[in-house]
Amino acid sequence: MMQRLLAVCLLLCAPLLVSAAALEELKLLNEQPVSGVSGGNLSGLAWCEGALWAVSDRDDQQLYRLESDQTQWQATAEAFVAPPAPDVRLPWGLRMRSWVAGLVRGGELDFEGISCDAAGNRYLVSEAHAAVLQLPVIGEPNWLNLPQGLVRQARASGMLLHSNALLEGIAVDPAGERLYLAAEQRRRGLLVVHKQRSIWRCTGGCVLFSEAGTEPSPAQLGTEEQPRDFSGLAFHNEKLFTLERQAHRICRRNLSNAEVERCWSFAAEALMPERRYPPAYGMAEALWVDQDGAWIGVDNGRFSRADGESRPIIWRFAAPQGGWSGKP
């Protein structure tokens, strides 16, 4: 009986232990500002077909190919025309608030993430519509016909209930057969659908994981309690990697249940005095992970850093010692 109680305690306390433990700090290799992205709004990154691509939540009809001269990334827009977004049966109030926000700030579709498969197909997640737009290598853009149970199950688990806190990240496996989505906060969570004979299904349920609650911010931000969140998602080597904006960390998670296996911090570099922004919350929104490291993109919006830089920033961090699959 005592062993069972101890096992239950460890399971329940695991997220707290991850938060409290001193995490390995990732090493920053370089940072470069991005020129040419509308209004500083860089909300997603993906390495596709030999190039780094970005998406902005203010642009409904273009994404950006990025090229670096070692001092900055220059964005070149690639235009597309998205067909009308599908009705996934979000409540009328949520849809109206998203529609009004799109009118005011631009970006009615509110693209918050980008991913791609090995064939070069790209996938954009729309927060406002809780939907995924595919930009295929051949053919016209199309919205994936995701199962109706996806949104219903997410909402039943406490996710996708609040305006501007819907889907914030997307990751696709190289074969293009497993699609993962991250719900941002209040509750945050991870969803999955599988492609079977060209049909997307909830195999064994769409919800991998969900949780509510708060946790302390890094000491540089005053350790004030903030809602747990996800702001980016990546798939690498049969693992999920979550960008946890307010905690300033990347966590590796198991594919079957999204359980945390290990986390790494980027707070030491991101919160250097010259890199600080006026808001006391995290602003990293884009993540891509590969064998050699991680790309993290900062959506600074209208804010400038302490050093005066007003463009979005992309950080390149080295993979941790022992690689992303290493144990603590």
From TrEMBL:
Pfam families: Phytase-like (PF13449)
Boundaries of every Phytase-like domain copy: 40-186
Signal peptide: 1-20
Keywords: Signal
Domain of life of the source: Bacteria
Keyword Signal recorded: yes
InterPro entries assigned: Phytase-like_dom
Name the UniProt record assigns to this protein: Esterase-like activity of phytase family protein
Source species: Pseudomonas spirodelae
Highest classification ranks of the organism: Bacteria, Pseudomonadati, Pseudomonadota, Gammaproteobacteria, Pseudomonadales
